[in-house]
Amino acid sequence: MNFEEDELFSAALLGWDMIEGPKLKWYRNFTNGNVDIDFENFLMNFYLGFRGGNEGLKPQAILYRDFYIVAFPRGLELCCLFMKPTGVGPKLQNLLTVAESLILHMDEMENDIDDDEDQDYDEIKRIIINMLREQQLSTPEIRRYFHMSNAEIWKIMSILEEDQRICRTEKRGRTQFWTSCN
Q1: What CATH number does residue 76 fall under?
Q2: Residue 168 is part of a domain; what is its CATH number?
């Protein structure tokens, strides 16, 4: 990352107290361009943002609207450099365009998947109603025919029951038995 000296406007050293959690050990402004940060309210989230999570997935920098922070850990301490972003606005606008395009693409894909699932569920409903004509089957037996999760089969059975297409016949232990209402 290339940066110029005038981008760095302040630095802070955060430590960790076993009782109080993160604490500000040292803070210094280098220029008058101070960003107003309420460390008391912001410190825990800020410290955990850089120090929490998996060992290999910790951020090195976090970008905010008016500044970005680059942090370097040392033991439980965190040395933070507060920087003025230069030329980030146009880049973020370009990224917003890319993100909006991806969101629209994902929505279209999700709608296609939902349509496919609705067609699959409609076919499964039709088959279940036919299976239950003049006989009764338990929920686990029905589930085995379709290789579905318990939640998925119960969702379908609940819809069919609400539509009065199938009826509950008996319950043995925790097993519910069903038959066609027609």
Answers
A1: 3.30.450.70
A2: 1.10.10.10
Query: What is the arrangement of strands in the sheet containing 77-83, beginning at the earlier edge strand?
Result: 21-29, 8-17, 77-83, 68-74, 61-63
Domain containing residue 72: 5-87
Q: 107-141 b/e with 16+ CB inside 10 Å = b?
A: eeeeeeeeeeeeeeeeebbeebbebbeeeebbbee
Non-local CB neighbours of 52 within 8 Å, separated by 6+ positions: 58
Question: Are residues 126 and 83 part of one domain?
Answer: no
Please tell me the number of Cα atoms within 13 Å of 6 on its side-chain side. 2
Return the SS3 of 68: strand
Model pTM greater than 0.85? no
Domain-embedded: residue 35 = yes
Mean pLDDT, the chain, whole residue set: 82
Q: Is residue 92 part of a domain?
A: no
Number of domains forming the structure of the chain = 2
Tell me the DSSP string of 142-172: HHHHHT--HHHHHHHHHHHHHTTSEEEEEEE
Q: What is the pLDDT of residues 74-109, one digit of tens each?
A: 888 889 888 888 777 788 888 888 888 888 888 777
User: Hey, what are 160's tokens?
Assistant: 């069919």
d(CA 170, CA 23): 63
Residue 65 and residue 126 in one domain: no
